[in-house]
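Q: Got a minute? One more chain.
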Amino acid sequence: MAFIKRYKQNFLFLRATFLVLVGVLWIFSSCTKDTVDTSPDIKLAFSNDTILFDTVFTSLGSATHRLMVYNPSSSKIIISDIRLEKGTASPFRINIDGEATFDGKDVEIRGNDSLFIFARVTIDPNDATTPFVVEDQLLFTINGNQQVVKLVAWGKNAYYILADHHPEGFPAYKIIADSLQNVVWKNDKPIVIYGFAVVNSYGSLTIDAGTKIYFHKNSGLWIYSDGQLTVSGTQSQPVIFQGDRLEQDYADLPGQWDRIWIMEGRKGYDDKIENAIIKNSFIGIQAESFFHKNENRLLLNNVQIYNTNGASILSKNYTIDAQNLVAANSGGYCLALTGGGDYQFLQSTLANYWTYSIRNAPTVILTNYLKDTNDLPIPYPMHFFLGNSIIYGYNENEFETSMVSGADSSYLLDHCLVKTTLRMDNPDYFRSIIKNKDPKFLDLETNDYRIDTLSPAIGAGDPAIGAKVPLDILGNPRGQTPDLGAYQFIPGQSEKSK
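A: Always. Here it is, folded:
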């Protein structure tokens, strides 16, 4: 019993000693952390020595950039001053640990810890039409020494279209061309759109070559019933439609803006889009008859549509004539031609290599009906012709139709390369089809849909169809042996430029 008693006493003594030591170490550690390192040799470390902002539009601000400030000491440090060199006159704004300021005082960082600083920039407009640079410096003063992080941003002036109508249940919009008014968008400055820019009935919009249009989130261009759109790009100066985020991370990100929405028009007043690039939207072009039967055409010549969440082209009972069309990488369809209509697509490349999510939709879908309120199909005439073209992608079947009886309907794929599980031996619908052979596009990651030396699309086109579109999307002649798709193979072509 005496042995057990001595054992318990020793155990209790050892435990008490251990707890005392732990307490002493904790107190020492706490004192060390609370001790301020005042050495003049202390140097802060930064995640970047320069915060670089990509081109931003004047007066609309930029994305937020983060700077991490590290304390290399095991003791606490106090940064006596963190400030923008230009103070309140600076185009930059900073936020230090949740507090917006131009000048932060006595900012503490515990030993071996870090601090977050967030920076934004807003650039005031001036008279320049070319990009210009604005700069400032973020100054850190610690223990009598100063360290610097540079802030650099390129600004670009623009014309701004801001929605001034906010009807319930409809997108916010601004009428930019009213009835009987013709408006011209020139290329001297970019155009930035918040909401929908609307061309009203009997109004018209012409967009000059080289014009760049940038849309904010959920924004778009809306050609209202009986309005008219003319996009007059050239091969050297295409018209570009894209989102308003200019950082590199957004260069190919889908769904940044809504769509170009074209409603039915009047006979003799065709809508025309020529030499244009439409990218990173929800839907590229939506063309539909809404209030009355469509009497005009949508003409597409040398148009490229990339990276859409929903569809590159969505139509409802419309008339579209397209040549040298490239529609690629959609979360849904590249062509969704629904509710009937009259369509002719020549020398087109329809390629769907979507990688952002699972895609169940085919690249091309044709239907000759719309559904009523009881979900029953109402048939409409449908006529579709696709010539000297490519339909390809990751799915096993990239071409589908859904037709009902009761309306005059037909479709024909003539001299096409198609990824499909369907039989294509009925000459009423399919002629000279190349099935399931990789077209060998040059570079899918950069949306370069030219074909390379070993492509089965080379020389596989019908000369009669090629003669209707004698130049490819880059202006190269097709001659007597046209290739399939929007691009004619050119020996020795560079794989790095489009």
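A: The longest helix spans residues 2-34.
Q: Perfect, thanks.
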